[in-house]
Design brief:
mainly alpha; two-stranded antiparallel ribbon; 4 helices; 57% helix; rod-shaped
């Protein structure tokens, strides 16, 4: 009877200790959940919600990536706007130079030639703006300076002038960015745009025919 009683008590004690440890573990997990604000420290504790959590994490990662890409595109667009503002200032200054030349304020045609050459080179430098190792006005050929005034096919202009974009070394691909699911934004402009071509042609024409006021 004594042996049987001890065996019975041992089994009961083990079970009691096991239950007690489980209760303590559950209490600890509850305290951790309350203090951290998380339902569980691992997927095992939320087995019924694992797939929903994984889907949410996937959505968050995708949205975060889209946000980073959109911010990068915004930086490029801002730089392009700033650069085009500088181009506009250059155009206004050059127009004033032409006006001064026509009114006889320049001593020699050479004065106009020098200014026109410098203006043309400044315009080319602006079109070759690089941001983060990426040329902004080159289309998809982001590692190639889009304007090369020394290209053999870009010949000196004379009257009557004709459009010539042989200076352009890029392509016609527009940049695009996915800013949200199902929404892709095309942005940018390339250095062979008609406005840029006319600007460079006017400067080239003035540099090569500085003595011809009609030109």
């Amino acid at each position: 009877m004594a042996i049987s009683s001890r065996i019975s008590t041992f089994t009961f004690s083990n079970r009691l200790n096991s239950d007690n440890l489980r209760i303590q573990q559950n209490a600890n997990e509850t305290q951790l959940s309350i203090s951290s604000g998380k339902k569980s420290r691992n997927f095992a504790g939320i087995s019924t919600d694992v797939q929903r959590l994984l889907n949410t994490e996937s959505d968050l990662a995708r949205i975060t990536t889209q946000n980073i890409v959109a911010q990068t595109a915004q930086s490029r667009i801002n730089q392009m706007f700033s650069t085009m503002g500088d181009m506009l200032d250059l155009a206004n200054d050059f127009a004033q130079t032409l006006s001064q030349n026509l009114s006889g304020q320049f001593a020699t045609p050479f004065d106009l030639e020098v200014i026109a050459r410098n203006s043309e080179e400044s315009m080319a430098a602006l079109l070759n703006t690089n941001l983060g190792g990426r040329y902004l006005f080159a289309g998809s050929m982001i590692d190639v300076p889009p304007v090369d005034l020394t290209d053999p096919l870009y010949t000196a202009q004379a009257t009557p002038s004709t459009p010539n974009i042989e200076y352009y070394q890029g392509d016609n691909m527009m940049q695009n960015v996915t800013v949200a699911d199902g929404y892709t934004l095309d942005y940018g402009v390339t250095a062979d745009d008609i406005g840029f071509e006319k600007m460079l042609r006017a400067m080239n024409l003035a540099a090569n025919t500085s003595a011809d006021t009609a030109a």
